[in-house]
UniProtKB/TrEMBL annotation:
Protein species of origin: Neisseria macacae ATCC 33926
Domain CENP-V/GFA: 1-117
Record's protein name: GFA family protein
Family: Belongs to the Gfa family.
One Pfam short name: GFA
Keywords, alphabetical: Lyase, Metal-binding, Zinc
Stretch forming the signal peptide: none
Transmembrane feature ranges: none
A GO molecular function held by the record: metal ion binding
Family annotation (PROSITE patterns): CENP_V_GFA
InterPro entries to which the protein is assigned, alphabetical: CENP-V/GFA, Mss4-like_sf
């Protein structure tokens, strides 16, 4: 499926299962003011406009990316040197064709801001539960 930033400088071809995850971690909330909604890419996205992508290493295990032109969030990249499987979590808002997307999981729910609550009855994981699930727990 095709995804692109607001200005069109970056486009992504992404294979995914149409399942949206909401992350409530402090970094996502600081970036968006609320939860970050992403889809897990099945393999690396095919990228056009790579020169327009800015990268920010936001943790020991991942980097956040954005369009240098319009500032649109693109994806979170779980890096291979993290010791976990490499993964790409693509901003769900980049897809114009999203009619069959469904919220399937919320993570870092213990970090959620007090000023909003999602009404969907989806599985929820705390920070500790999520980190244990991906193998990053200490």
């Amino acid at each position: 499926m095709k995804a692109q930033c607001q200005c069109g400088s970056v486009t992504l071809e992404v294979r995914h299962n149409h399942e949206v995850h909401a992350c409530h971690c402090s970094k996502c909330r600081q970036r968006t003011g609320g939860a970050s909604f992403t889809l897990t890419a099945e393999g690396a996205p095919q990228i056009s406009g790579e020169e327009n992508i800015g990268r920010y290493r936001s943790s020991d295990w991942g980097e956040r990316t954005f369009c240098k032109e319009c500032g649109n969030d693109l994806y979170f990249h779980l890096l291979p040197e993290s010791g976990m499987d490499e993964a790409w979590y693509v901003n769900a808002g980049l897809f114009a064709d999203n009619a069959d997307f469904a919220l399937k999981l919320q993570i870092f729910t213990d970090c959620q801001a007090p000023y909003y609550h999602l009404s969907d009855d989806t599985p929820k994981m705390t920070e500790q539960e999520f980190l244990a699930w991906v193998g990053a727990a200490e």
